[in-house]
Amino acid sequence: FSMRLRALAFLAAPLAIAVPVAAQAPQAGLTQVQTHLRAVETMTASFTQTDRRGRTLSGTLTVKRPGRIRFDYQGANILIVADGRALAFVDYDVRQVQRWPINDSPLSVLLNPTQDLSRFGRIIRDDAQVLMLEARDRRRREFGTITLAFARVPSAPGGLILQGWN
What we know:
There is one protein chain. The protein has 2 helices and 10 strands. The protein is mostly beta strands. The longest helix is centred in the N-terminal third of the chain and has 14 residues, at 26-39.
């Protein structure tokens, strides 16, 4: 199954469709996210990223699972790319490349469809419009945290569409 997204907006606008959702146990939310992530093999989206200083960059994100991701930035000479094993940050201005294993990055939640989300993920919001998952390696907090936001869309894989992350 393949999904193609053209706009990535992290909860920027309220959703027009309200889908009634019964109160779910956290495990049910994790199972729903896992089902979605395993069903989506490819994704392309526009993105906007804001750093800690308030600077904003935009570009195109491409995901091909398992293990491949590419952030093409507009107007910046940087690239973030994963080849299935390593995640690389390339800064063309200073001719520097930094690499680290994908599993040492919070992005691994998007790139490895076989991992067990219950080992490092928890649902932090679950309502009629949105399901949010926070993921981190509890043993290695230095790898960071990622919070994924999904819109509830019954016709989508697992009933979810990735809207953004933080």
